[in-house]
Amino acid sequence: MGMSFRIGAAASFALLAGMAQPVSAAESSSLDSVIAEDPVLSAGLKIYAEQCLQCHGEKGSGTEDYYPDPLVGDGSIGELTEIIVDTMPEEDPDLCVGEDAAAVAAYIHHAFYSEAAQIRNRPPRQSLQRLTGTQFRQSLSDLYAHFAGLQETTWESHQSKHGLSVSIYSGKGRKKEDRKIERIDPVIDFDFGKEGPGEGVPWDEFRAHWDGGLRVEQTGRYEIVVHSKTSFTMDFGHDSNQLIDNHVQSEGRNEFRRTLMLTGGRVYPLEIDFNQRKRKGETPPASISLSWVPPGGIETIIPPSALVPGWNPPALQLSTTMPPDDSSYGFERGISVDTAWDSAVTDGAIEFANAMRDRLWNDYVRKHRKDKRSREEKLKDFLSDFVTVAHRGNAEAVQPERIVDPAIEAFEDETDIIKSVVLMTLKSPRFLYPSLDADRTVSQQVANRLALVLHDSLPSEGWLQDRIKKDQMRDEQSIRRAAERMLDDARTRVKLKQMLHHWMELGPEDDLRKDDEKYPGFSEELIADLRTSLDRFLDETVWSETSDFRQLLAADWAFTNQRLADFYGDAWKPAKSDDDNADEPNESGEWTQSVRDPNIHVGVLTHPLVMARLSYHSATSPIHRGVFLIRHVMGRTLRPPNEAFSPLSPDLHPDLTTRERVALQTSPESCQICHSRINPLGFALEHFDAVGRFREKDMNKKVDASGSYLTRDDERIEFDGARGLAEVAIANPDTHRAFVTRMFQYFVKQPVASYGAHRLDELTESFRQSDFNIKKLLVDIAVIAASDALPDSEPKKKQPKNNQTAGA
């Protein structure tokens, strides 16, 4: 606040009150009366006009010549008072102190900083958005599944169905009478030797056929690796898609690698036909292993949890990579349309058209081979169904003939017809902008929103299409029933896990390598195990019956295996059971819950993967950890630092602990505006080193893990260590609102207040009343988003329509 500017004390109150930036006459009048009736706010407004106006402007939006940044944030009145006393006015900080500083802080908070002020000054609205890259990929996958079939993958089946089905035959063929073994193999990793695969099967001449699916829980590039010197073929995605052909063995070759772009939440069918044949000379023993390299991971045998036995329907394997979407608001949004995006959409549409021609259309013809319709009539019906589902409506509203008929008239070749229809359909705003559905039925609009929120997709399943046709989703109760059914689905589980990874700032591209001399044994294999450990913990916590958010922050156990127990010590040994000994961990690949230790295991807050991510190469980073806690856990905002800085090198102060070094570097007054909030939270995790191991000392000094948190209500809460931090976070309303807000924004991709000014309060209270049940919260969010389609929804009453019809 450069405060040289003065205006007369006689300036009218009405002129001064205009600075609060009301958005309507009614709100302006209400705001004026609130300020007029409060002597502190009235005094603060007058001081603001006299001492702050020149730099910060009438509406707190800043001025080009003095201070261009707007007055926004969530600082408490106490924090604002402290800043004003210490630094404002810039040329004479002593000019505004004591009661004057408290009064102007109260006014600034009321006019600009409070949640009500932020909604009043910048009324949130639902923006028109295109499909994000993830939504485009998932929507194409479900369009494919509409014709190919979709395996229902409930949490129960996810937990119980593991491995691949196998039939083993004696001799060369696969005759029923020669089948000797039928079973489910947890993994494929066999060296049959001269014992063979089992009783009644000769080791030197047999055939094995594995059948099942690959369960993918993260979208990205996967490398599929088969090691074998024996004859085999492998189909993947569809029985007509041969991924590896080693039917005629290549001399000296025993490794086969294929890189695939796969979509999370899908099960890709796979078959391996393995043929051990007698040779004229010496027959080598048969062997085979099936491995993968998942995104950001290392090569490992594909685990049982990623394999599904039995038949699985074909699944779309889309190799097109979509450009990254805007994430400036903390969640992905489809708001930009540029050449890169348009080109990727075109590539994806062409790839989908090829899959339709090569697989779906051929399958459709085969399925309807006894149908008396002509081939052209079948093709027209096939393509009309595709357009109708893709444009999220019924045939009457979509009028697919507008796209299909011209293509059939223009081209003779089926390939050209299919490509033309697919390109016209998938490049249309009707497909790319899901909210352009105002002319659809209410049930269709509801289903469109449910599918987009929970599955990042469009409604394609038979049961959901049936409810749309019968117009059975016109009230909140029916919407909730549909949302609860859609919740128990692999696509929802994948999206929720991605949201939690995003919340923890974790990604497959993270470089978690550390100084080998300081942290020997922190290997790529260990990091891969930590990723699995964390994901298993998230699944177990979220998809349990209680689905308790508090356990994410405070559970006193983790998932462990032999390698983690060896590296991290006693707290990572498996818990005792009736037949196990806690002092004897399971083999490296086996996973189990660890012993309970409330000081070392504190939910995700102290999981080594999170601690390593929020550390430097050779030291901890209380600043990174504190920023994560203040922004992501407590949900508070921070201004970007005025200037970039590098951490002080430990070599410059070899006797200082990390805490002492950070306190020294951030001690200047200009730093303390933010670091007085950041550091006390980050210091609470100093018991955990750069790889997440618990330590009692740092630089031969006892670790000081004391910390504190200043709430929005100016209450300073003191605590000690990670456990104390977790207890404060769990009990604090800031944490609850922050998690609800993040969940809503990630799933709906719109501001929660755009669905009603009190929606966040209502959702947060419902979250508390449900004992912080994450699954119930997600259903509530989906119901709110889908109910927006109902004629009497709150947003519809208050906002102009932005989803008017658009041509195909």
From TrEMBL:
SUPFAM superfamilies: Anthrax protective antigen, Cytochrome c. The keyword Transmembrane does not apply. It holds the Pfam family PSD2. One of its GO terms (molecular function) is heme binding. Residues 574-595 are annotated as: Disordered. Residues 159-306 form the PA14 domain. Residues 1-25 form the signal peptide. PROSITE patterns: CYTC, PA14. The keyword Iron applies. Keywords: Heme, Iron, Metal-binding, Signal. Residues 39-151 form the Cytochrome c domain. InterPro entries: Cyt_c-like_dom, Cyt_c-like_dom_sf, DUF1585, DUF1588, DUF1592, PA14/GLEYA, PA14_dom. This is Secreted protein containing PA14. It comes from Rhodopirellula europaea SH398.
